[in-house]
Amino acid sequence: MTIQQLTYFLATVEHGSFSGAARSLFLTQPSISEQIRQLEGELGIALFARAGRGLVLTEAGRKFRPAAARVLADVERARAAVAEVRDLRGGTLGFGMFGTASAYLIADLATDFRKKYPDVRLRLVGLNSSEVADQVRNATLEAGLIVLPVDDAGLDLRVARLEELVVVSREASRLSTPVTIEALADAPLILYDAQYGANDPMRRQLLDRAQRAGVTLRPVIEVEGIEAAVGLARRGLGDTIVPRAAISRQGARGMHFSSFAEPLFDTFAFIARSDAPLSPAARAFVEIVERRLDRLSEAALYAAGTSETD
Amino acid sequence: MTIQQLTYFLATVEHGSFSGAARSLFLTQPSISEQIRQLEGELGIALFARAGRGLVLTEAGRKFRPAAARVLADVERARAAVAEVRDLRGGTLGFGMFGTASAYLIADLATDFRKKYPDVRLRLVGLNSSEVADQVRNATLEAGLIVLPVDDAGLDLRVARLEELVVVSREASRLSTPVTIEALADAPLILYDAQYGANDPMRRQLLDRAQRAGVTLRPVIEVEGIEAAVGLARRGLGDTIVPRAAISRQGARGMHFSSFAEPLFDTFAFIARSDAPLSPAARAFVEIVERRLDRLSEAALYAAGTSETD
DNA sequence: CTCGATAACAAGGTTTTTCCTATATGACGA
DNA sequence: TCGTCATATAGGAAAAACCTTGTTATCGAG
User: Where do the domains of chain A lie?
Assistant: First the structure.
């Protein structure tokens, strides 16, 4: 039994003759005739009674008709199901983001995406970068945005953005010249994302530099969020280091900031399974993330030196 | 999209690899691979992500899987629907019978048939022979048992039985020798099946004979059923003519009966559309009817001359 | 009752599809 | 690094689908 035969059968029922069905399907009568014969042979019973003029359904044919129609309807539904995914009118996208990005971006991203593709369900999870990488690897998530470095085995990786890390201090004097790692070591340091400890990419880079310069960094306070770190810096408890984009946000008003002498960057990257092609939904979402990141950069450009007005 | 491709797809999902699916279907891996590729091409999106080892469903594949399964399930249901009809496990049989037969046989026939094929619905209608013929012609009924003659245009006709018509009288003297049509004309005549009038096959035969013999038959009473006719004959209101098989029934006790000098028969015949093949159910039912008719004949053989004991 | 139209059916040939074998390629694990 | 297992690819054989041509049967009209 083939879908084709079912199509021919239903067309024949509708037209009452093989030739009529053949015309409607742009085929010849013997083709239809032959396929119906085969179908009847396989079913072991005649579906039509052959009259000189036209055809009549047999009892078996009457029973078969609605069943055949249902099969064809389901075929269409199957086609539609994948078309939804293909045309971004359905399905679910699972996407992971590292903590900071998820905190600041998730609302905007979800809004943008749902506005454009209201029928695609979205599952956006905030984890740390290596957790995101793991879940993408085992297909719990389809793709993600992380901060390098991560173990990229089995992953496709594409750098999305370099986010400069700047030093923030209450004392403008401490930032009169680009900050060196040695200068940083001279003052109390406040760091955030305490829970990740040495796995935090920013810490890894800082410790790396300190080691090479032969100095020791002493974080006096480690807190959870950027806001908290900046808040503590405002009270003069120490300096802190934050992504440049975070400067333009609330909580940094009246603070001073400066690049490192040797600029320090967080590298954002998109990851996906290296063997699986990205779904259209994932591609569309990545594009939206990129647009948002670009807007962040632009906003950050206007904020330089001291964020008085923000 | 073909049913075959859906089968291959589901087998691949189940086994997690083309090669595994191929083994389970007794095919080779390139065949499966090729069909899946074609399916994906037609759907316009990949269903599997090809990993070095094994395959993973894409989002589209996940959506497609249940839809494909439903199609295959419905294909099976379609197959089962016609199999029911073929194997006499379903469907409906419409069968027509002429009045007398329906009155005497319907209960037994329905019982026999339902006992053997409890899943086939039965629609047994009692009409006169020409009405049955008409409804078989226009496919309202699939087949029927009628008394000849009928207009058999467009019908297949098979004689089922010759049923002798015998004269029944209260006076044994009237039946001492085989009855001639002339002798019949000498006495009051009671006929049944009044409503059909001259269309009744028995009347047609009798009138035909009378005409050839140059005598006139005068039915003094016409009633509806055989029982009524025999009842009136018992009261001495006249002679009547009934199928031999009816003699052995209640209501004919103590009456005398005799064949015609030139034996008179009702011819029972099965009819069906000449263009439509009989459904298995109809064939089975015809067989059951034949068996019942045979048993009637046997019973009638023991009743001869006078039905004292019946 | 013959004639023409229509449609099923049959036969033969061509194109397309399906499936195979053989081989290349790529990933994983010892 | 090599062997194993998986998919991809190429080429050819078998099968299926379709077409063309021609025959037969039925129905309706003249």
Answer: 3-86, 92-301
> Any idea which fold B3-86 has?
Arc Repressor Mutant, subunit A (1.10.10)
Cα distances (angstroms) measured from residue B175 to each of A229, B80, B242: 128, 60, 14
- Mention every residue, 6+ apart, whose C-beta is less than 8 A from residue B246: B100, B104, B226, B230, B252
Distance A65 CA to C7 C1' (A): 22
Nearest chain B Cα distance for residue A59, angstroms: 7
A261 at B interface, C-beta within 8 A: no
CATH 3.40.50.1970 fits A92-301, yes or no: no
Q: What is the pLDDT of residues A13-59, one digit of tens each?
A: 888 888 888 888 888 888 888 888 888 888 888 888 776 666 778 88
pLDDT of residue A51: 65
**Do the Cβ atoms of A275 and B74 come within 8 Å?**
no
Residues of A in contact with B6 (CB under 8 A): 78
Q: How far is the CA of A52 from the C1' of D23 (A)?
A: 15
Report pTM.
Answer: 0.73
Q: Which two tokens stand for residue B176?
A: 């001492």
Distance CA A199, CA A144 (A): 18
Q: In this complex, do A92 and B59 lie within 8 Å of one another by their Cβ atoms?
A: yes
The string of pLDDT tens digits covering residues A293-303 is: 888 766 655 55
Contacts of A51 in chain B (CB under 8 A): 275-276
Interface of B with A in 167-186 (CB under 8 A): none
For the packed helices A29-43 and A3-15, what is the interaxial angle rounded to 10 degrees?
110
Same fold, B3-86 and B92-302: no
Residues with CB under 7 A from strand C: A 17-20, 29-30, 33, 37, 50, 53-55, 154; B 2, 4, 22, 26-28, 30-31, 34-35, 38, 51-53
- Regions of chain B where pLDDT drops below 50: 303-304, 307-310
CA dist B63 to A79, A90, A177, Å?
Answer: 10, 9, 58
pLDDT tens digit sequence for A175-227: 777 888 888 888 888 888 766 666 777 888 888 888 888 888 878 888 877 87
CATH topology of domain B92-302: D-Maltodextrin-Binding Protein; domain 2 (3.40.190)
Q: Encoding tokens for residue A47?
A: 């579906």
